[in-house]
Design goal:
This protein is α+β, with helices and mostly antiparallel strands. It has 9 helices and 11 strands.
Length: 268
């Protein structure tokens, strides 16, 4: 048994390639699988803890506690960890789910549409509050196929619309996010960069489009931007059009809002 402060968990799980490790708490005073804990010896979670207080939505984590303390294994100290405790969502990375399940056929496409319709709900809520997630990738959209819900997690890079980016996952970032990072790295001032680039909800939608494309085709759009229907013939023409609309390079030509994406998916 492991513990940090009074918080107990059964397994020490290290996630390669991720800045945070994750455990489900098993304290007797908690409901079973009620709370999850991100922990890392290097990554501080104080910013994400503050950000979580801004939102109240069933598909966005509720914060519980944040801090830094010694991790113990069976009563023996191991190392000091930063930690963040928040709602645990049952489910898994939506891309990994479909890697195991295989490319969606005509019947399964109905489920995929239902799942991504559900994912627009927390996005619309966040965007309506004037914030963008800025780091949407498969591991941050957690699918529960039993309930059909998708939870939006890991808000540490969330910013106000129009602010300077503070992090991203390059593989699933929008073109304008990458360009903002490129300009900042050249030494251009933040004020100058913001005159050229304004991140908004369309940036998050591009990332959602990349995930949906990968689910539907098993491919990465960035590696070979092929219309999805050419890879998976089961994709309806309307869905093909929606995907191409959300993957427009120019954010001004892209589907602009989670509400608009929801309407487009409903019409497929």
């Amino acid at each position: 048994m492991y513990s940090i402060k009074k918080h107990c968990f059964k397994e020490f799980k290290i996630a390669p390639g991720h800045r945070a490790n994750y455990a489900i708490l098993c304290n007797p005073e908690f409901k079973e699988r009620q709370w999850g804990m991100k922990y890392s010896p290097a990554n501080d979670y104080s910013r994400e803890y503050k950000i979580l207080s801004l939102f109240s939505h069933p598909q966005i984590p509720v914060r519980y506690e944040e801090g830094k303390d010694v991790m113990y294994r069976d009563g023996q100290s191991v190392l000091i960890q930063n930690y963040l405790i928040m709602t645990h969502f049952e489910g898994e990375d939506v891309v990994e789910y479909y890697k195991k399940k295989g490319l969606p056929d005509q019947r399964e496409i109905e489920n995929v549409i239902r799942y991504f319709l559900n994912a627009t709900l927390p996005l619309h809520y966040m965007h309506s509050k004037g914030y963008i997630h800025c780091d949407i990738k498969p591991g941050h959209l957690i699918l529960n196929p039993v309930t059909g819900t998708m939870a939006l997690i890991d808000l540490e890079c969330t910013i106000k619309t129009g602010e300077i980016i503070c992090g991203m996952s390059k593989e699933y970032a929008s073109p304008e996010q990458k360009e903002m990072i490129r300009l900042l790295r050249t030494g251009e001032s933040e004020k100058s960069v913001l005159k050229k680039i304004r991140l908004n909800s369309a940036s998050d939608l591009y990332s959602v489009g990349l995930i949906l494309y990968r689910v539907m085709t098993g491919k990465l759009w960035q590696e070979a931007p092929i219309p999805p229907k050419e890879i998976n013939s089961a994709i309806p023409d309307k869905l093909n059009k929606v995907l191409l609309g959300v993957l427009e390079e120019n954010p001004n030509n892209r589907i602009q809002s989670a509400e608009a994406l929801k309407s487009e998916l409903e019409a497929v």
